[in-house]
Amino acid sequence: MINILIVEDTATFRAILRHQLVGIGYTNIWMAADGVEALALLGGETRFDLILCDWHMHPMDGLEFCSKVQSVRSGVPVLFMTADPKLADPERRARMLEPAKSLGIVDVLAKPFNIDELRTALERSVATATSAATSAAKTARPS
């Protein structure tokens, strides 16, 4: 069972997202209203396998949050969520995502999204994270 952390500043959207996640079989879910609260959770004992994070939040935005995550829990993959209309175009989204990959961001999900889009993005994000972890483990093994 994977542990998911939702970082979203809109309470209604947090509740809807939690409901959607439970509906597709994810039950180990923690929620934070902002990056500060999420960093406190990440500093605890729970090992998170995936973070779903809003791009535009206060007091810190998603990019700033992700850069801080790397110093607290490096390697946790992040699925960004945003209502930014510029990211609806897949080519533009890919260009914007490229520099963010160094911060652990594995994909961007454009709001509003339906449950099938969420499921697909989660599967893709988990697969990307699993592949990266496997590659890192192989690289770390002595020859």
Helix and strand arrangement:
Blueprint: E1 3-7, H1 11-23, E2 28-32, H2 35-42, E3 50-54, H3 62-72, E4 78-82, H4 90-100, E5 105-110, H5 115-140
Parallel strand pairs: 1-2, 1-3, 3-4, 4-5
Which whole number gives the mean pLDDT?
A: 85
Instruction: Look at the helices and sheets and give the structural class.
Output: alpha/beta
Largest sheet: 5 strands, parallel
Please state how the strands of the largest beta sheet are arranged side by side.
2-1-3-4-5
Which of globular, elongated, flat, extended, rod-shaped describes the shape? Answer: globular
Quaternary class: single chain
The arrangement of helices and strands along the chain is EHEHEHEHEH
Q: Any low-confidence stretches, pLDDT <50, length ≥5?
A: none
Report the count of strand segments.
Answer: 5
Helix percent band? 40-55%
Give me the number of helical elements.
5
CA distance, first residue to last residue: 32 Å
Strand content: 15-25%
Rg on CA atoms, Å: 15 Å
